[in-house]
Amino acid sequence: MRIGLDIGGTKIEAVAVDGDDLVVSALRRPAGHGGVEVLDNAVRAVEELVARLGEPVVASVGVGIPGMVDPATGTVQHAVNLGIDGFPFGPGLETRLGVPVALENDVNAAAVGVSQLLGLRGSLAYLNVGTGLAAGLVTDGVLLRGARGGAGEIGHVPVDPAGLPCPCGQRGCLETTASGAGVARQWSGTGAHAAVEVFRAAERGDPLARDIRLRLAEGIAAAVRILVLTNDVDAVVVGGGVSRLGAPLLDDVLGVLARQAATSPFLASLGIPDRVRLLPPELPAASVGAALLRPAHELDRPLPR
Protein backbone atom coordinates (compact mmCIF):
# COMPACT_ATOMS: atom_id res chain seq x y z
CA MET A 1 0.00 0.00 0.00
CA ARG A 2 1.12 3.54 -0.74
CA ILE A 3 -0.16 6.73 0.82
CA GLY A 4 -0.49 10.13 -0.83
CA LEU A 5 -0.88 13.49 0.90
CA ASP A 6 -2.05 16.64 -0.86
CA ILE A 7 -1.09 19.46 1.51
CA GLY A 8 -2.83 22.72 0.66
CA GLY A 9 -2.84 26.09 2.34
CA THR A 10 -5.43 25.03 4.93
CA LYS A 11 -6.02 21.27 4.65
CA ILE A 12 -4.43 17.89 4.05
CA GLU A 13 -6.21 15.43 1.76
CA ALA A 14 -4.86 11.91 2.19
CA VAL A 15 -5.49 8.69 0.27
CA ALA A 16 -4.29 5.11 0.48
CA VAL A 17 -3.90 3.21 -2.79
CA ASP A 18 -3.51 -0.52 -3.22
CA GLY A 19 -1.28 -2.51 -5.54
CA ASP A 20 -3.62 -1.78 -8.45
CA ASP A 21 -3.38 1.99 -7.79
CA LEU A 22 -7.01 2.09 -6.62
CA VAL A 23 -8.04 4.35 -3.74
CA VAL A 24 -9.07 2.21 -0.77
CA SER A 25 -9.45 4.94 1.86
CA ALA A 26 -9.37 8.73 2.08
CA LEU A 27 -9.57 11.44 4.71
CA ARG A 28 -9.16 15.17 5.23
CA ARG A 29 -7.71 17.08 8.17
CA PRO A 30 -6.44 20.64 8.83
CA ALA A 31 -2.91 21.39 7.64
CA GLY A 32 -1.92 23.84 10.37
CA HIS A 33 0.89 26.37 10.07
CA GLY A 34 4.63 26.12 10.54
CA GLY A 35 6.95 23.20 9.94
CA VAL A 36 6.34 21.31 13.17
CA GLU A 37 2.54 21.63 13.13
CA VAL A 38 2.18 20.71 9.44
CA LEU A 39 4.52 17.75 9.94
CA ASP A 40 2.55 16.57 12.99
CA ASN A 41 -0.73 16.75 11.07
CA ALA A 42 0.76 14.87 8.11
CA VAL A 43 1.94 12.11 10.45
CA ARG A 44 -1.52 11.91 12.05
CA ALA A 45 -3.17 11.65 8.63
CA VAL A 46 -0.95 8.71 7.69
CA GLU A 47 -1.42 7.00 11.06
CA GLU A 48 -5.20 7.36 10.83
CA LEU A 49 -5.31 5.82 7.35
CA VAL A 50 -3.09 2.94 8.45
CA ALA A 51 -5.27 2.31 11.51
CA ARG A 52 -8.44 2.33 9.42
CA LEU A 53 -7.03 -0.32 7.12
CA GLY A 54 -5.84 -2.68 9.83
CA GLU A 55 -2.15 -1.75 9.99
CA PRO A 56 -1.06 -2.81 6.46
CA VAL A 57 2.54 -2.55 5.30
CA VAL A 58 3.16 0.91 3.82
CA ALA A 59 5.64 0.87 0.93
CA SER A 60 6.01 4.65 0.65
CA VAL A 61 4.39 8.00 1.36
CA GLY A 62 4.22 10.74 -1.27
CA VAL A 63 3.50 14.39 -0.58
CA GLY A 64 2.31 17.10 -2.96
CA ILE A 65 2.85 20.57 -1.52
CA PRO A 66 2.76 24.16 -2.86
CA GLY A 67 6.02 25.92 -3.63
CA MET A 68 9.38 25.14 -5.18
CA VAL A 69 10.35 21.64 -4.06
CA ASP A 70 13.72 19.93 -4.09
CA PRO A 71 12.74 16.23 -4.21
CA ALA A 72 16.32 15.15 -3.49
CA THR A 73 16.54 17.01 -0.15
CA GLY A 74 12.86 17.05 0.77
CA THR A 75 12.75 20.80 1.35
CA VAL A 76 10.34 23.39 0.00
CA GLN A 77 10.55 27.14 -0.63
CA HIS A 78 7.85 29.76 -1.24
CA ALA A 79 5.06 27.76 0.47
CA VAL A 80 3.86 31.06 1.90
CA ASN A 81 0.56 29.99 3.45
CA LEU A 82 2.10 27.01 5.26
CA GLY A 83 5.10 28.75 6.82
CA ILE A 84 7.52 25.90 6.15
CA ASP A 85 10.14 27.55 3.92
CA GLY A 86 13.43 25.69 4.28
CA PHE A 87 11.97 23.20 6.75
CA PRO A 88 13.27 19.63 6.14
CA PHE A 89 9.76 18.31 5.67
CA GLY A 90 10.62 15.20 3.65
CA PRO A 91 13.38 13.93 5.96
CA GLY A 92 11.27 14.78 9.01
CA LEU A 93 8.30 12.80 7.73
CA GLU A 94 10.52 9.88 6.75
CA THR A 95 12.08 9.79 10.22
CA ARG A 96 8.71 9.93 11.98
CA LEU A 97 7.07 7.25 9.80
CA GLY A 98 10.02 4.97 9.11
CA VAL A 99 9.13 4.56 5.41
CA PRO A 100 10.49 6.16 2.20
CA VAL A 101 8.97 9.58 1.50
CA ALA A 102 8.73 11.46 -1.82
CA LEU A 103 8.11 15.21 -1.78
CA GLU A 104 6.93 17.06 -4.89
CA ASN A 105 5.26 20.28 -5.96
CA ASP A 106 1.49 19.89 -5.73
CA VAL A 107 0.78 20.64 -9.40
CA ASN A 108 3.43 18.15 -10.49
CA ALA A 109 1.88 15.55 -8.19
CA ALA A 110 -1.54 16.31 -9.67
CA ALA A 111 -0.16 15.80 -13.18
CA VAL A 112 0.91 12.30 -12.17
CA GLY A 113 -2.56 11.66 -10.73
CA VAL A 114 -4.29 12.97 -13.85
CA SER A 115 -2.26 10.61 -16.01
CA GLN A 116 -3.30 7.65 -13.85
CA LEU A 117 -6.93 8.54 -13.13
CA LEU A 118 -7.78 9.44 -16.73
CA GLY A 119 -5.77 6.56 -18.18
CA LEU A 120 -3.76 8.91 -20.39
CA ARG A 121 -0.63 7.63 -22.07
CA GLY A 122 1.96 9.50 -24.11
CA SER A 123 2.41 13.11 -23.05
CA LEU A 124 0.14 15.45 -21.12
CA ALA A 125 0.13 18.83 -19.46
CA TYR A 126 -2.00 19.38 -16.38
CA LEU A 127 -2.89 23.08 -16.27
CA ASN A 128 -3.94 24.13 -12.77
CA VAL A 129 -6.07 27.27 -12.79
CA GLY A 130 -6.49 28.03 -9.11
CA THR A 131 -5.34 30.95 -7.00
CA GLY A 132 -2.37 31.00 -9.38
CA LEU A 133 -1.58 29.38 -12.72
CA ALA A 134 0.91 26.54 -13.22
CA ALA A 135 1.34 23.32 -15.16
CA GLY A 136 2.77 19.87 -14.58
CA LEU A 137 4.19 17.81 -17.44
CA VAL A 138 4.29 14.02 -17.80
CA THR A 139 5.81 12.32 -20.85
CA ASP A 140 5.86 8.55 -21.31
CA GLY A 141 5.34 8.01 -17.61
CA VAL A 142 8.10 10.40 -16.54
CA LEU A 143 7.43 13.62 -14.62
CA LEU A 144 9.40 16.52 -16.12
CA ARG A 145 10.82 18.73 -13.39
CA GLY A 146 13.41 20.81 -15.21
CA ALA A 147 16.90 21.82 -14.08
CA ARG A 148 15.66 23.56 -10.91
CA GLY A 149 12.17 22.18 -10.53
CA GLY A 150 10.58 25.03 -12.44
CA ALA A 151 9.22 23.15 -15.46
CA GLY A 152 5.61 24.15 -16.08
CA GLU A 153 5.71 27.50 -14.22
CA ILE A 154 3.74 28.95 -17.08
CA GLY A 155 1.85 31.48 -14.98
CA HIS A 156 4.88 33.74 -14.95
CA VAL A 157 5.37 33.87 -18.70
CA PRO A 158 4.86 37.57 -19.59
CA VAL A 159 2.56 38.01 -22.59
CA ASP A 160 1.70 41.72 -22.36
CA PRO A 161 4.47 44.28 -21.63
CA ALA A 162 1.77 46.86 -20.87
CA GLY A 163 -0.30 44.46 -18.79
CA LEU A 164 -1.08 44.30 -15.10
CA PRO A 165 1.79 44.14 -12.58
CA CYS A 166 2.41 40.63 -11.23
CA PRO A 167 3.40 39.87 -7.61
CA CYS A 168 6.46 38.09 -9.04
CA GLY A 169 7.89 41.48 -10.09
CA GLN A 170 7.15 41.23 -13.80
CA ARG A 171 4.31 42.81 -15.75
CA GLY A 172 1.68 41.17 -17.92
CA CYS A 173 2.23 37.58 -16.75
CA LEU A 174 -0.45 35.06 -17.74
CA GLU A 175 -1.33 34.64 -14.06
CA THR A 176 -2.46 38.28 -13.80
CA THR A 177 -5.59 37.48 -15.83
CA ALA A 178 -5.79 33.66 -16.00
CA SER A 179 -6.11 32.75 -12.33
CA GLY A 180 -8.46 33.11 -9.40
CA ALA A 181 -6.27 35.79 -7.82
CA GLY A 182 -5.99 37.60 -11.14
CA VAL A 183 -9.76 37.66 -11.54
CA ALA A 184 -10.20 38.82 -7.93
CA ARG A 185 -7.77 41.72 -8.40
CA GLN A 186 -9.89 42.97 -11.31
CA TRP A 187 -13.17 42.37 -9.48
CA SER A 188 -14.31 42.78 -5.89
CA GLY A 189 -14.24 39.23 -4.52
CA THR A 190 -11.90 36.45 -3.48
CA GLY A 191 -10.34 33.72 -5.61
CA ALA A 192 -12.65 31.19 -7.21
CA HIS A 193 -15.68 32.94 -5.67
CA ALA A 194 -14.79 36.07 -7.62
CA ALA A 195 -14.70 34.02 -10.82
CA VAL A 196 -18.20 32.71 -10.13
CA GLU A 197 -19.43 36.25 -9.50
CA VAL A 198 -17.78 37.47 -12.70
CA PHE A 199 -19.43 34.77 -14.81
CA ARG A 200 -22.84 35.52 -13.31
CA ALA A 201 -22.43 39.25 -13.86
CA ALA A 202 -21.19 38.67 -17.40
CA GLU A 203 -24.34 36.68 -18.15
CA ARG A 204 -26.34 39.71 -16.98
CA GLY A 205 -24.40 41.90 -19.41
CA ASP A 206 -22.06 43.69 -16.99
CA PRO A 207 -19.34 45.20 -19.24
CA LEU A 208 -16.48 44.88 -16.72
CA ALA A 209 -17.40 41.27 -15.96
CA ARG A 210 -17.53 40.46 -19.66
CA ASP A 211 -14.06 41.95 -20.18
CA ILE A 212 -12.61 40.01 -17.23
CA ARG A 213 -14.25 36.80 -18.42
CA LEU A 214 -12.79 37.27 -21.90
CA ARG A 215 -9.31 38.00 -20.49
CA LEU A 216 -9.54 34.85 -18.36
CA ALA A 217 -10.40 32.72 -21.40
CA GLU A 218 -7.71 34.37 -23.51
CA GLY A 219 -5.11 33.80 -20.79
CA ILE A 220 -5.98 30.13 -20.36
CA ALA A 221 -6.03 29.68 -24.13
CA ALA A 222 -2.58 31.29 -24.34
CA ALA A 223 -1.29 28.89 -21.67
CA VAL A 224 -2.73 25.94 -23.59
CA ARG A 225 -1.22 27.18 -26.83
CA ILE A 226 2.22 27.64 -25.26
CA LEU A 227 2.13 24.17 -23.70
CA VAL A 228 1.25 22.59 -27.04
CA LEU A 229 3.73 24.64 -29.06
CA THR A 230 6.64 24.05 -26.66
CA ASN A 231 5.94 20.44 -25.63
CA ASP A 232 3.55 19.09 -28.30
CA VAL A 233 1.61 17.27 -25.59
CA ASP A 234 -1.15 14.87 -26.55
CA ALA A 235 -3.54 16.39 -24.01
CA VAL A 236 -3.94 19.50 -21.87
CA VAL A 237 -6.12 18.78 -18.86
CA VAL A 238 -7.44 21.88 -17.09
CA GLY A 239 -8.11 21.64 -13.36
CA GLY A 240 -7.94 23.75 -10.21
CA GLY A 241 -10.56 25.79 -8.38
CA VAL A 242 -11.43 28.08 -11.30
CA SER A 243 -12.00 25.06 -13.57
CA ARG A 244 -15.06 24.25 -11.44
CA LEU A 245 -16.85 26.86 -13.54
CA GLY A 246 -17.18 23.90 -15.87
CA ALA A 247 -18.58 23.91 -19.39
CA PRO A 248 -19.03 27.70 -19.69
CA LEU A 249 -15.32 28.22 -19.01
CA LEU A 250 -14.27 25.41 -21.35
CA ASP A 251 -16.54 26.79 -24.09
CA ASP A 252 -14.94 30.23 -23.69
CA VAL A 253 -11.42 28.80 -23.96
CA LEU A 254 -12.27 26.60 -26.93
CA GLY A 255 -13.91 29.58 -28.61
CA VAL A 256 -10.72 31.62 -28.30
CA LEU A 257 -8.63 28.74 -29.65
CA ALA A 258 -11.03 28.24 -32.56
CA ARG A 259 -10.92 31.93 -33.50
CA GLN A 260 -7.13 31.87 -33.46
CA ALA A 261 -7.04 28.73 -35.61
CA ALA A 262 -9.44 30.33 -38.10
CA THR A 263 -6.83 32.97 -38.98
CA SER A 264 -3.72 30.76 -38.74
CA PRO A 265 -3.33 27.67 -40.94
CA PHE A 266 -0.38 26.71 -38.75
CA LEU A 267 -2.43 26.69 -35.54
CA ALA A 268 -5.31 25.00 -37.34
CA SER A 269 -2.99 22.17 -38.39
CA LEU A 270 -2.15 21.44 -34.73
CA GLY A 271 -5.74 20.69 -33.68
CA ILE A 272 -5.20 22.37 -30.32
CA PRO A 273 -8.89 22.52 -29.26
CA ASP A 274 -9.15 18.74 -29.65
CA ARG A 275 -6.40 18.27 -27.05
CA VAL A 276 -8.14 20.22 -24.26
CA ARG A 277 -10.39 18.77 -21.59
CA LEU A 278 -11.52 19.56 -18.05
CA LEU A 279 -10.53 17.45 -15.08
CA PRO A 280 -13.70 16.09 -13.40
CA PRO A 281 -13.74 17.99 -10.08
CA GLU A 282 -14.45 14.90 -7.98
CA LEU A 283 -11.18 13.17 -8.92
CA PRO A 284 -8.47 13.38 -6.19
CA ALA A 285 -5.67 13.92 -8.69
CA ALA A 286 -3.13 15.55 -6.38
CA SER A 287 -3.36 13.03 -3.53
CA VAL A 288 -3.42 10.00 -5.87
CA GLY A 289 -0.51 11.45 -7.82
CA ALA A 290 1.40 11.95 -4.58
CA ALA A 291 0.86 8.29 -3.69
CA LEU A 292 2.40 7.28 -7.01
CA LEU A 293 5.53 9.41 -6.60
CA ARG A 294 8.90 7.72 -6.36
CA PRO A 295 11.20 8.45 -3.39
CA ALA A 296 14.39 10.40 -4.18
CA HIS A 297 16.53 7.32 -4.78
CA GLU A 298 14.10 6.18 -7.49
CA LEU A 299 13.54 9.47 -9.32
CA ASP A 300 14.97 8.28 -12.63
CA ARG A 301 12.51 5.41 -12.96
CA PRO A 302 9.21 5.74 -14.85
CA LEU A 303 6.09 6.27 -12.80
CA PRO A 304 4.17 3.10 -11.87
CA ARG A 305 1.44 1.97 -14.25
Automatic annotation (TrEMBL):
Protein name: ROK family protein
Organism: Clavibacter zhangzhiyongii
PANTHER family the record matches: N-ACETYLMANNOSAMINE KINASE, ROK (REPRESSOR, ORF, KINASE) FAMILY
Ranges annotated as spanning the membrane: none
Protein family membership: Belongs to the ROK (NagC/XylR) family.
InterPro entries the record matches: ATPase_NBD, ROK
